[in-house]
Specification:
Structural class: mainly alpha
Number of domains: 1
Strand content: under 5%
Helix content: over 70%
Number of helices: 9
Radius of gyration: 22 Å
Largest sheet: none
Shape: elongated
Length: 196
């Protein structure tokens, strides 16, 4: 059903957009304007998170393929493509990509190579989770690193693995609705003008 809806959405995107704009001019326009504002805000913040996840997947792929090339693993390009695709899936992607790497590693260097691969994956994903993810999220969403790290930690506790994806968009969505970020910028500008 999702594929079917996506197909119809793609082929009728322009006409659907024109038709949907009529909701913003009717007698209940106030209601649809609020929905439009909330949907646009959440979509923008969710897009930032997806873009950040894409950058993290690229960095993760580069680091992993460099380590695998030092181990003289065969078919580096195929493994790199698999690692990149699996890096877009939180947590489960690591396990799925680790299975073929461990099988190939076992065929080349035995149990020793499996241990090397597991240690490599643990180090790279620790760097990703505790350094890259908070730093990139904070720079893209203009949040301090402390808030980003706290939101990621709390949202993982509440929503599980998916909290790492939806936590930041929900938090920035709430900030936009409360107009915390706009008022913060305003008060900062006022403080700077007073200092001058």
């Amino acid at each position: 059903m999702a594929l079917l809806f996506s197909f119809f959405y793609t082929i009728e995107k322009d006409s659907m957009y024109k038709f949907s704009k009529h909701f913003l001019t009717g007698p209940f326009s106030w209601f649809f304007k609020d929905i439009y504002y909330f949907a646009k805000t959440f979509t923008n913040s969710f897009g930032v998170v997806l873009e950040t996840q894409f950058i993290i997947a690229i960095v993760n792929t580069i680091l992993t393929t460099i380590c695998l090339s030092f181990m003289h693993m065969p078919q580096i390009l195929s493994l790199g493509l698999l690692i990149f695709l699996m890096s877009l899936i939180p947590v489960a992607g690591v396990i799925i990509s680790a299975i073929p790497m461990c099988i190939i590693g076992y065929s080349i260097g035995g149990l020793r190579y499996i241990i090397y691969i597991v240690i490599m994956l643990c180090v790279i994903h620790a760097v990703e989770a505790y350094v890259l993810n908070p730093k990139l999220m904070s720079s893209r969403t203009e949040l301090p690193i402390f808030y980003t790290f706290a939101v990621l930690f709390v949202s993982e506790e509440i929503f599980g693995v998916w909290g790492l994806i939806v936590g930041i968009p929900i938090f920035t969505f709430i900030l936009e609705i409360m107009q915390v970020r706009d008022s913060g910028k305003l008060s900062l500008e006022e403080g700077e003008s007073e200092n001058e």
